Amino acid sequence: MDTNKNQPVVGLFITCLADLYRPEIGFATIKLLEQAGCKVDVPAQQTCCGQPAFNTGDFKTSAEIARQTIEAFDGFHYVVAPSGSCISMLHHYPELFDDKDPWKKRAEELKARAYEITSFLVDVLKTELSSSSFQGSVTYHDSCSGLRELGIKAQPRQLLAQVEGVELKEMEESETCCGFGGTFCVKYPDISNRMVGNKTQNIVDAGAKTLLGGDLGCLLNMAGKLQREGHAVEVRHVVEILAGMTDQPALGEAQSSVKAG
Q1: Which CATH class is domain 129-260?
Q2: Residue 100: its pLDDT value, please?
Q3: What is the Cα–Cα distance from 255 to 81, expressed in whole angstroms?
Q4: What global pTM score does this model have?
Q5: Which of 42, 60, 91, 153 has its CA 20 to 30 A from that of 83?
Q6: Domain 9-123, what fold?
């Protein structure tokens, strides 16, 4: 692998949800990274980050997944994902190993190289977007893991401000959980449904035509609720706007067209 520091070599952690439900997010992330001067590779041996097992207390399985992920991304200058949730899980890897375990040091090294995409573009590369445009109003949902564990708040907004034609309309309680929370929505469906209902009301009240966010789990949850309630709000991952890749149907629309077919 080329280790020329003049061109950062980035391993893309695609995430399960993007791989299965929205590959366009991966392509948009690659486009942004390459435009910023990075060389990008997508290790084929990567799998889940291990968060579902970690959140349910299965630390043995989490450690097995962590070792596989660490090996998959060995040698890259950086590991970048379009998900604050998955990157925050990578940041928890050192907790899975004892101090004397050599995997702990490798986990700490991975943590130091692992970034969510908007944070990486703003905080590490100091990127200025070029020739990006999107005509329309947007509102932004701050996902729990990205906001509270990684400090991601200003970065996506700073990048959106560089996109010609974007009008940002902030919703009330943009930092409040959407109710997805991984396994939370399965364990507490009634509470989860009430939470996402509150969120969709704030989205609609903001008056924006498009909802953006940085975590696909949250976006799928809100897109489904908006669709069931009959609201004409497009839902997209923020990288789709930043990369100018909005030719595919929005979330919710894509699922409807699949069912209709």
Answers
A1: alpha beta
A2: 96
A3: 23
A4: 0.92
A5: 60
A6: Rossmann fold (3.40.50)
Looking from the CA of 138 toward its CB, the CA atoms found within 13 Å total: 26
**CB-side exposure of 193: number of CA atoms within 13 Å?**
7
d(C-alpha 146, C-alpha 177), whole Å: 11
| Exposed e or buried b per residue across 6-39, where buried means at least 16 C-beta atoms within 10 angstroms of its C-beta | eebbbbbbbbbbbbebbebbbbbbbbbbebbebe
| CB 40, CB 120: distance < 8 Å | no
- 4-53 residue pLDDT tens: 558 999 999 999 999 999 999 999 999 999 999 999 999 999 999 999 99
Q: Looking at 5-92, list the stretches that DSSP marks H as alpha helix, in order from N- to C-terminal side.
A: 16-21, 23-35, 51-55, 59-72, 84-92
φ/ψ of 42, rounded to 5, equals -125, 95
CA gap 150, 2 in Å, rounded: 29
- Spatial CA neighbour of 83 closest among 8, 182, 166: 182
**Cα 233 to Cα 193: distance, rounded to the nearest angstrom:** 18
**Are the C-beta atoms of residues 48 and 20 closer than 8 Å to each other?**
no
Mean pLDDT of 153-176: 97
Domain boundaries of the chain, sorted by first residue:
9-123, 129-260
